TrEMBL record:
SUPFAM superfamilies: Actin-like ATPase domain (SSF53067). One of its GO terms (molecular function) is N-acylmannosamine kinase activity. GO terms for biological process: N-acetylneuraminate catabolic process. Pfam families: ROK. This is Glucokinase. The keyword Kinase applies. Keywords: Kinase, Transferase.
Length: 292
C-alpha cells in the first residue's frame, strides 16, 4: 500500500538534482539544478539543502530522498559506477541526512524510487509484475512485484544497468565488461561519440544528431535501444513482467520508445511485455521517494 504523498522529495541523478513539494498526492512545486557530479558529499548536501529551502522545507518535515547509486541496509551510500559520482563511496548517508533534515526520512535508489512511483501513481497501476528502466546518465531499474520493490541488503538489487549485454564491447565504470550501461547510458554514449571522432558531445546532442539522420549517431542510438529491448526480454524471462515503463531523459526522448518497441517485436510474444513511457515523466523518482 503506497503512502499518501505529503511532504518533500529529492531526486539526485548523475546529471540533475531535483526537489519537490507534495500536497495531497499532488506535486505542487519543483526546483532543479545540475548535479555537481565530481563534488564531495558535503557540496551535494549543500545543494540539496538549498533546493529544499527554496521549497519551504523545515527540519522534521516528511522527506523522501532518491539517490543514484547503491544504499545498503546500514544506510551507507556508494556509486556502483564510480565514473558517475567519483567521490561517493561508503558514505553514511542515513546518519548525515538525519542530522541535516530530521528523522522523518526515507532514502532509496533513484530507479527503485521511480519504479515505485510509477507502480503506484503512474504507468504500473493495476499490474502485479512491473518493471521500470531509466536510460539517463546511466541505466537503472526497479522491479515491483505485487506492489513491493525487489530490494537486497547490499542495495544492489535492481541495478539492471550492470547486467551484460550481447552488444557490449567496452569497460563499464562498475568494473564489469560490456554492461547494458556501457552501451546505452548517457555517459557511455558520449564516450562512443568521442571514439567515433565527435568531441564534447552529451547524449542530448547525440540524440539531436540522430534526429538529423547522422549515420554515426543513428548507430549509437539504435544500438542503445536494441540493448534495452534485449534486456526487457531477459528481465521478462526472470520476473514474468507484464508491463515495463521507460524513463530518464534519453528513454523519454522522442522516438526512443519506438526504437525499443521495434527491436522487442523481434522477440517471441512471451518475452514481449507491454512497454510504454513513464506516465510521471521525469518526476517518477520524486513520487516514489515519498510513497514507500
Ligand atoms: P539524471 O541521470 O540525472 O537522472 P536525466 O534523466 O536528465 O538525468 O539523464 C541525463 C542524460 O540524458 C544526459 O546524458 C543528457 O545528455 C541526456 N538528455 C537530456 N535531455 C535529453 C533529450 N532531450 N534527449 C536525449 N537525451 C537527453
Ligand atoms: C547507475 C547507478 C544506479 C542508478 C542508475 C540510474 C551509480 C552512480 N548509479 O546504473 O544506482 O540507479 O545509474 O541513475 O552507480 P542516473 O544517474 O542515470 O539517474
Amino acid at each position: 500500500m503506497a503512502k499518501a504523498l505529503n511532504g518533500f522529495a529529492i531526486d539526485l541523478g548523475g546529471t540533475k538534482l531535483a526537489a519537490a513539494r507534495f500536497e495531497a498526492n499532488k506535486l505542487v512545486e519543483k526546483a532543479q539544478m545540475p548535479t555537481k557530479a565530481d563534488a564531495p558529499f558535503e557540496d551535494l548536501c549543500a545543494a540539496m539543502a538549498m533546493l529544499l529551502d527554496q521549497l519551504g522545507f523545515c527540519q522534521g518535515n516528511r522527506l523522501g530522498v532518491a539517490l543514484t547509486g547503491r544504499i545498503d541496509q546500514s544506510g551507507h551510500w556508494s556509486a556502483v559506477n564510480g565514473g558517475t559520482l567519483p567521490k561517493i563511496k561508503d558514505i553514511d548517508v542515513r546518519n548525515a541526512f538525519t542530522n541535516m533534515f530530521g528523522t522523518n526520512l526515507t532514502i532509496l535508489n533513484d530507479a527503485t524510487a521511480a519504479a515505485c512511483g510509477e507502480a503506484h501513481f503512474g504507468a504500473g497501476q493495476g499490474v502485479s509484475a512491473f518493471g521500470y528502466i531509466t536510460i539517463s546518465t546511466g541505466v537503472g531499474g526497479g522491479i515491483v512485484l505485487n506492489g513491493q520493490p525487489v530490494t537486497s541488503p547490499n542495495g544492489l538489487a535492481g541495478h539492471i544497468g550492470f547486467m551484460r549485454s550481447p552488444l557490449g564491447n567496452a569497460e563499464c565504470g562498475c568494473g564489469r565488461f560490456g554492461t547494458v550501461e556501457s552501451v546505452a547510458g548517457g555517459r557511455a554514449m558520449a564516450h562512443q561519440a568521442h571514439v567515433a571522432g565527435f568531441e564534447n558531445l552529451n547524449a542530448k546532442m547525440i540524440f539531436e544528431a540522430y534526429l538529423a539522420n547522422e549515420k554515426w549517431a543513428t548507430e549509437i542510438i539504435s544500438r542503445a535501444a536494441q540493448a534495452i529491448a534485449i534486456q526487457i526480454a531477459d528481465l521478462t524471462s526472470i520476473f514474468g513482467l507484464e508491463r515495463v515503463a521507460i524513463g530518464g531523459s534519453i528513454g523519454l526522448a522522442d522516438g526512443f520508445l519506438e526504437l525499443i518497441s521495434l527491436s522487442l517485436s523481434k522477440e517471441p510474444d512471451l518475452f514481449q511485455p507491454d512497454v510504454r513511457c513513464a506516465a510521471l515523466g521525469s518526476n517518477s523518482p520524486l513520487f516514489g521517494a515519498l510513497c514507500i
